[in-house]
Amino acid sequence: MMREPCGNGHSWRQDDSPHDECGVFGIYAPEMDVARLTFFALFALQHRGQESAGIAVTDGVRLIVHKDMGLVSQVFEEEVLQSLPGRLAIGHVRYSTTGSSEMRNAQPFARTRDGSFIALAHNGNLVNTDELRAGLVRNGQVFESTSDTEVIAALLAEHPSHDIRVALRDVIPRLRGAFSAVLLTKDQVIGFRDPYGVRPLVLGRLENRYCFSSESSGLDIIGARLVREIEPGEICVIDEEGYQIEQVVDRRRSALCVFEFIYFARPDSVMKGQTLYAARRRMGETLASESPVDADLVIPVPDTGNSAAIGYAARSGIPYGEGLIKNRYIGRTFINPEDRVRKLGIRMKFNPLTSAIRGKRLIVVDDSIVRGNTTRALVRVLFEAGAKEVHLRITSPPIIYPCFYGIDMADQHEFIAFGKTVDEINRELGATSVAYLSLEGLMQATGVGDEETDFCAACFTGDYPCEVPEYLRSSKFRYEESACGAVED
pLDDT band for position 409 (50/70/90)? Predict the structure, then answer.
């Protein structure tokens, strides 16, 4: 069911997929319409957050911030874009995890600093927000939001150094958790990333100017080319001279969230040198090798299952086809907590292509299962449409541990896979069979490396790269971990 934000600042959704917190973009380009370029980049990053959008611009003298609830195209109409002149800009699209879905938590956040100003947009989630906020409040800082992004902005704003780079060198090591951020000053745009690199950030070049984006797809849309990823623990300053990179925190184990590869990022984006379409296709191929089944048709759960379903069909030799038509115009406005309306939710999002699936043994490829609500309804819809068999094939391992780094999932006891065997999961979903991609198969399919050296896969393994305070863990865990396994608290 729909739920209001919990006491720990997290809010859960009717949708059964994991959700990333947001996307960020920043650009220094005095000769260009930076607000419009930021608008287009945010449009390409819209999949990373659909609750609010914002742009901050400056001409070097004044700062203008425009942000509101809604999609990028709703927040930034033509007259708004024309009212945002500037030489450099940052932008943000948000899906709330820390801080509820309210206007006061929309980004970027602006603060006065050293007689001037800064603006900050951030992707990720800190695990020591309460500690940092308490110290700032004792120093007289006042907060307008419940977002950890404003805490980072406040730390930078109150720092005594006149040099923002000195402030960053001091503040970044104090931040624990996941963060990729873009910072706007009167004459610089600065990107920085946590020492584990949990959330992505890339540097691009547009003519002789530079920009940042959460994904390379945000560069492609404006005609910029990918220069490199901002590495974990780095800051990158772009200004009139070009760009300068500095390692300000010792790099830890690389721990990019593996869900960027599975689900979050667009298939046309490039991460760790890999096109995500190709990686997801390999996931489908590997899944077909690990969990084959006799069937008549392979169909995806659109859109995130498309690439993997193509790979599964190619490896298995079973034809690929469409069996579900997605309504891409449904918004959360239409999700109603009343049971009568909620039952229509799956039909509003997916409609079965009855003529293609009637009497068929189906292999249905999807990226993940969290609580199982949507998947259970989807299986029922396919059987009602005449499917003879429904074999679910999932391109990730079972999710059994909560995320603390900026992914909106659920508490542990809400996961359908928690404490259950695959057969028990299957019986609960009502499918003919269910199979998950193994962790080893997933890592191989990424084409990059393994869980120990390249990714955070804590939602599958419980191995959190950055220590999580006990009070946060207990808020999401139904069971506490002990030396001999999970024991009931």
Answer: confident
pLDDT digits (tens, 9 = 90+) for 257-305: 999 999 999 999 999 999 999 999 999 999 999 999 999 999 999 998 9
The parent domain of residue 51 ranges over: 19-252
pLDDT band of 251, cuts 50, 70, 90: confident
Same domain, 232 and 289: no
State mean pLDDT over 159-188: 97
Within a domain: 488 = no
Q: 6, 22, 257, 484: which is the annotated catalytic residue?
A: 22
Please indicate whether residue 22 is annotated as part of the active site.
yes
pLDDT tens digits for range 214-246:
999 999 999 999 999 999 999 999 999 999 999
Which CATH number is 117's domain given? 3.60.20.10
First to last CA, the chain: 25
